[in-house]
Amino acid sequence: MRQIRRGRDLVSGDDPIGIQEVEADVFATRLADVDRLLDGGIRRGQTIELVGPRSSGRFSLVLELLAGATESGESAALVDLGDHFDPQAAARTGVDLERLLWARPERLKQALGSAEVLIGGGFPLVVLDLGLPPVPGGRGKESAWLRLRRTAEDHQAALLVATPYRAGGTAPQKVLDLGSRTSPVRALWAQAAPGSPRLLDGLRTRLELAKSRGERPGAAADIELRVLTGSLRRPLPGVPFPRAARRRADTPVEVLRRAG
Predict the structure, then answer these.
(1) In this predicted model, what pLDDT tens digit does every residue of 64-108 receive, in sequence order?
(2) CB within 8 A of 26, min separation 6: which ones?
């Protein structure tokens, strides 16, 4: 059912029957333990920083959030500084690509500006992924991050910053640490039949609440992220291959490694 987004939706001439007038206040990740850690998910007007090194499952968690939002009928935007987004893999995860805007800046300053414009343009959920180190443009200025947070608050948009290291300074209300040193990432393996080779099936990691205004940090959730099955050589109808996928088909291991 169509949802009301702006005032012009009310005078568009469409049949108003079936319109949902109430928007969700929280964007869930589809991972129950993570949502419990976040009191249901990422709230509108809230800025959350998700910190995770290479192969921690950070980008897989981003896809879960985008899938949950778009499946519920919300629109979302991904500012992909690391250029890791794979439309094929995202569609298999459950992301509704027709409800997702994909921006691909080249520098951090451009990424921050893009996120601010998208929030101001009315997107209720914006994800800013900084990719893997070294991030082009460094950590950015504190003032730029604070302005981005104020923009999210003013427009009541949920903002998730996925980064390989702390970058937002004092701007995020919550900071989540994925795959900490005290609880390293563990690979999950599957075997189709006795005697057959084992295949990487996913990973088990720990998400810790490193900072939360008004709360005591230290809460944690153990989560499992599964590798997508099926060959990426078989494109979904109407879904383009990204440039990397045109060069070669990605194995499950490569998909997991690119997941951040």
Answers:
(1) 899 989 988 899 999 999 888 999 989 988 999 999 999 999 999
(2) 39, 40, 41, 42, 43, 44
